[in-house]
Specification:
alpha/beta, Rossmann fold, 11 helices, globular, disordered C terminus
Amino acid sequence: MQKVKYRTQEVDGLKIAYREAGNSNNPTIVLLHGYPSSSHQYRKVLNQLSEEYHLIAPDYPGYGNSDFPSADEYEYTFNNIAATIDAFLEKKEIRSYAIMMQDYGAPIGFRIATKHPERVTAIINQNGNAYEEGLGKGWEGIRALWANRNENTEKALLSAFTLEGLKWQYTHGTRNPENVNPDTWHLDYLRLSRPNAHKVNIDLWFDYQSNLKLYPVWQQYLRKHQPPMLIVWGKNDEYFPESGAAAFKKDVANLDYNTYDTGHFALEEDGEEIIEKIRSFMDKNVNVKGMVSII
């Protein structure tokens, strides 16, 4: 029997594509992807943890196989994307879940978690930032955009959309680039080559500064609600260096802290070890509590 199903759900007039695996009576993990990827980045997790867990990985609007409405039809902000994914979970009647977050998955996941703290059983964090000290030198060009958005500051970022720029996202900081499946950046390149894709993503980079304003809110959520957290962090990430991982130690008491000698997409190079960590962390912190998804 095929483990992963490739499905769609209508949400406010948009088709949200998602991958789903496992028995819905088991504890649920919602897998929230980063830039410039999609639910494809969680293919190893979906295949290897479906016996124990119910796994669901949506593609955000404009990403993966979800609809890509124009900016006139859909507001590409983190607030709005989080609202769409929250509505998606409501439509699916998923009201108890762990969140696995990476990159963009953090600002989307933390918005959902602060809205529904009672629903979040645990957080699995792979290079998902919530602290100012977690923003590395890779943000220099985007910070220039924040300071003064104009033709020059936008043009300076366009190399990130090239095939070589996308390859760098996946291979920078890895021990061996040959450990990373090139299908990853080639799929992203096809999606980012669609009309208006550059503008939409630059809009999101510009909006990323809204996340910094919410960092204190997310940190207070962690201090107050103390969700168990697993850190599985690629320490050579130029965007979110290890200082971002270490910052969670200030606010999370039940923290399983692990770093890996790899880059931004740690699952690509260290998937086997990370998946085993997820399994043991979930068994300890969720299964023993008898928490199950309600769908």
